[in-house]
């Protein structure tokens, strides 16, 4: 049996995972995750009991109970590079024996729902709407570092997308992955379903022109007009592709749902989204 070296999986002296700083017993198998550490505080304010509250860098974790369910809420910060850390450490907390550094005989499946903010790319995703990422397109390239990614990637969709937008050879190959179907049906049954791009930045990589001119100023209009079967691209955010991809490779269930805070077609935005976020968090907590 492989013993995972200390350098590959760093465990702190208190027995916690290197970045998340939580111990295996502090993790529930039902997890809600979000970029903003303060959103974890908001989520925990809906809990009936709090078991632990741990803060380390941008990773804020609270485990507690909500209507009798044990749930962990945690912040992952911004970007798919953080998701590599978070999902790998969550999986390790659940499936690796930290004492023997070996993979446990029995697999524990985690359920992860990301509750985020996002920019709408279609008129039917206005500010304030909730969009479930039925599929995600990763502009980030993270999944290509792992073996077997071709088993979970939707290559016809990827090829059609690259052709339509005339994808630059300077970028990583975009990958398409689906969220967990059962989870999407259970949690997002009354929400807008769509295809979400996980971008590698908020400005240029999402086609925002502030001061630096864009390499391809027409990319967003090509993204808006792209169709594959009945799918159109609905929104931009920065993590769902890696969450869906890594979870699928590891055997966990995951999905992302976002409240739309800017619409790139209507050119409007709303920074006062606390109420809409609170409603979305409560809905996910009720349904997870
Ligand atoms: O509101 P969160 O969950 O952070 O999600 C979105 O907001 C951040 C950018 O402002 C990115 O993390 C993006 O994915
Ligand atoms: O436009 C947006 C809004 C929130 N988060 C993003 O990544 N993009």
Give a structural overview.
The protein has 288 residues and is of the alpha/beta class. The protein has a single domain, classed as Rossmann fold. 26% of the residues lie in helices and 29% in strands. The protein has seven helices and 14 strands. It has a five-stranded mixed β-barrel, surrounded by four helices. Strands 5-6 form a two-stranded antiparallel ribbon. Strand 3 and strand 4 form a beta hairpin. Helix 2 packs parallel to helix 6. The longest helix has 16 residues. The structure holds 1-O-phosphono-alpha-D-ribofuranose and uracil.
CATH class: Alpha Beta
Fourth-tier CATH superfamily name: Nucleoside phosphorylase domain
Mean pLDDT: 98
The side-by-side strand order for the widest beta sheet comes to: 7-12-10-8-13
Strand content: 25-35%
Run of helices and strands: EHEEEHEEEEHEHEHEEHEEH
Number of domains: 1
Terminal residue distance: 35 Å
Q: Nearest-angstrom radius of gyration? A: 19 Å
Unreliably modeled segments: none
Which geometry do the CA atoms define? Answer: globular
